[in-house]
Q: What sequence folds into this?
């Protein structure tokens, strides 16, 4: 069975003398392993497709339970990102996140498009890298079913204003409930900033300003908690 799909290469492993096994995020099939035969031979037509991070439109065929790359063309190389060390580290962080959260044979087209978008933004707008990463984390965790509660107290459900943000309760906590619930102290601006990062399209994130560091670190802690991972190899290079 043959099909066409878009892929992002999450990981590449050398196999035999000239082949590669690619861990791919496929738009229609989730996380799949794809055999790229002869991809390490000079002048092989699939050499460029088989590079980590590249985004390509490819033809694949399924032979028993093995996906095999036939041919295709690269849509985004993210060349410029590779010239900015910090962007490149965060690009790899995105790949590491995807490798951790994606399952096989699931359709994640929304997450796929968002992932291509953030890699492009890291490449072209590195000055707003922190905002893009936080936006990616909070949008992704929301799509995965853990959207934080920012409108009413996540403990009592009341409409008092936010006093704390509780990672475990999954959102804001009002003053009345702070005796019962621990959390990180927040100002209304922090909550407004988190809301803006969720509600703003990726293309427009670069125009945001005044997102507090506290909002960014709450998002990161929240994200790590709900995806169940906080030791990212890629980030060890900069943090
Ligand atoms: Zn409450």
A:
């Amino acid at each position: 069975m043959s099909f066409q799909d878009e892929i992002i290469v999450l990981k590449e492993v050398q196999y035999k003398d000239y082949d590669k096994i690619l861990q791919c995020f496929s738009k229609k099939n989730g996380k799949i392993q794809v055999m790229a035969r002869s991809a390490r031979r000079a002048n092989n037509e699939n050499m460029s497709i088989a590079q980590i991070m590249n985004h390509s439109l490819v033809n694949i065929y399924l032979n028993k339970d093995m996906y095999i790359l036939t041919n295709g063309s690269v849509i985004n190389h993210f060349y410029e990102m590779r010239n900015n060390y910090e962007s490149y580290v965060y690009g790899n962080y995105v790949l590491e996140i995807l490798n951790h959260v994606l399952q096989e044979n699931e359709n994640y087209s929304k997450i796929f498009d968002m992932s291509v978008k953030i890699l492009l933004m890291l490449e072209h707008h590195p000055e707003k890298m922190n905002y893009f990463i936080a936006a990616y984390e909070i949008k992704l965790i929301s799509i995965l079913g853990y959207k934080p509660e920012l409108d009413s107290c996540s403990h009592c459900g009341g409409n008092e204003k936010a006093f704390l943000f509780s990672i475990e309760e999954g959102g804001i906590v009002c003053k009345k409930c702070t005796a019962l619930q621990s959390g990180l102290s927040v100002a209304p601006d922090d909550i407004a900033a988190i809301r803006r990062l969720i509600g703003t399209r990726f293309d427009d994130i670069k125009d945001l300003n005044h997102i507090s560091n506290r909002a960014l670190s709450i998002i990161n802690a929240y994200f790590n908690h709900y995806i169940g991972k906080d030791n990212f190899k890629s980030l060890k290079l900069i943090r």
The pocket of zinc ion is lined by residues 153, 155-156, 158, 173-174, 176-177 (CB under 6 Å). The CA atoms of residues 196 and 209 lie 10 Å apart. Residues 85-101 form the longest helix (17 residues).
